[in-house]
Amino acid sequence: MKTRITELFKIQHPIIQGGMHYVGFAELAAAVSDAGGLGIITGLTQKTPEDLAGEILRCREMTDKPFGVNLTFLPTVTAPDYPGYIQAIIETGVKIVETAGRNPEPYLPFLQKAGIKVIHKCTSVRHALKAEKIGCDAVSVDGFECGGHPGEDDIPNMILLPRAADELKIPFVASGGMADARSLVASLSLGAEGINMGTRFIATKEAPVHEKVKQAILSARETDTRLVMRPLGNTERVLNNPAVERLLEKEAALGKNLRFEDIIDEVAGVYPRIMKEGLVETGVWSCGMVAGLIHDIPTCRELIDRIMSQAEDLIENRLQKML
Ligand SMILES: Cc1cc2nc3c(=O)[nH]c(=O)nc-3n(C[C@H](O)[C@H](O)[C@H](O)COP(=O)(O)O)c2cc1C
What we know:
The protein is an alpha/beta fold. Helices cover 41% and strands 14% of the residues. Helix 8 (181-189) links the parallel strand 7 and strand 8. The chain starts with a helix and ends with a helix.
């Protein structure tokens, strides 16, 4: 399949693996890229720019296909060493960066000068237009269904994607709720040029996370996610568990007086324990509604091949025959 996204990133299939904290290590990024998609290493999971450079080199040993690095611009008081991370990306010759979170504008000139293509992930048409205006090459449009941070507008992809198609000139991929060939064909119909998946790629053989994390996704239904931190304007979609229920009770009790410090036990620094040690109920972790569509743990190649062959079948047979 050829789309503006496969052309832009020089990949075989229009399927991207979004950056994921403590999931997007070299093993997963390499497996996705090797299978013809675009794998992405999560920059900030690496504690220092030197660690990120090491992870990039590790990934390059596992695949000769293009892969990218995610840089999430967090709303924190003490910012991570973004210039250092960018230098590591440039010096190791990575040619694709997925930015997310805050406006990437201050860093774009450095990336562009190094010939790096930038895809910015955003949750609204106005932010997508801003990304286009400041010179991003593509956007990932993340609907309300998505795992992680869906923003505060709550627009699901059935509306958000055609709205993006109406307004944008640069190509975009559909993100949030994507799991299979149906997701891909629907997204293409709505104007996207590919899909970005998070949660689906966690339940793959190569995802370097504890087996209990994968099983938790398999057991979950589409009704099992919750939105947390909405009172802080930092909404996150997570898989429900006792820690999430504790956090939501605090949110209900404290109302507008809620501060980040009140929920620090449930959110801060929990990812290594969840993803590596498999303590899946120890804190809150991102997961999309799409968990309800995930029933197996294939290899990344099996998953991507299945999506592409079933998508062709859907287009050529099911849709064509309706005409
Ligand atoms: C466990 C997990 C961690 C994530 N961490 C990040 C992150 O660090 N930076 C980022 O830009 N997006 C992050 N995301 C969002 C994904 O890149 C992707 O946009 C999202 O998962 C798409 O929705 P889906 O889960 O329905 O496929 C994360 C998602 C999950 C499930």
